[in-house]
Design brief:
Radius of gyration: 29 Å
Distance between the termini: 96 Å
Helix content: 40-55%
Largest sheet: none
Number of helices: 5
Oligomer: single chain
Order of helices and strands: HHHHH
């Protein structure tokens, strides 16, 4: 049983150095890999990267973004990348353009004559 008082988590924030952030990410990826009962070799094989690449990422060294994404995909963390750089909404100028195109009212359906009916004066 793990003593929860000894488990510490590090919050990533903007005052941390790049190296500290990479180290924290590496530790989190390592923990996730272990929780999924994968060895570094298993993760590397499934991600299509070398074992050395996994070792370097977990140790907090810089890595190519594509390799990090491959590792995150195997660890089922890709959806979490959405939080790193969330999609932005439309700019104020785009909002003005969109607002000008919003329909203000609905029009009624018009009855169109069928092609085989002929028009005639009603008497």
């Amino acid at each position: 049983m793990i003593n929860s008082s000894k488990v510490t988590t590090m919050q990533i924030n903007k005052i941390m150095t790049d190296e500290a952030i990479l180290e924290a990410l590496g530790k989190r990826l390592s923990r996730r890999r272990i929780d999924m009962q994968l060895t570094q070799a298993d993760l590397a094989h499934e991600a299509g990267v070398s074992k050395r690449t996994v070792e370097r990422i977990e140790a907090g060294y810089s890595s190519q973004t594509a390799n990090l994404i491959r590792v995150c995909r195997v660890l089922d963390l890709v959806s979490g990348l959405e939080q790193w750089i969330p999609e932005t909404g439309p700019s104020p100028m785009e909002m003005v353009k969109i607002k000008g195109k919003v329909r203000q009212r609905a029009s009624s359906k018009r009855n169109k004559p069928t092609p085989d009916s002929t028009w005639s004066w009603k008497t």
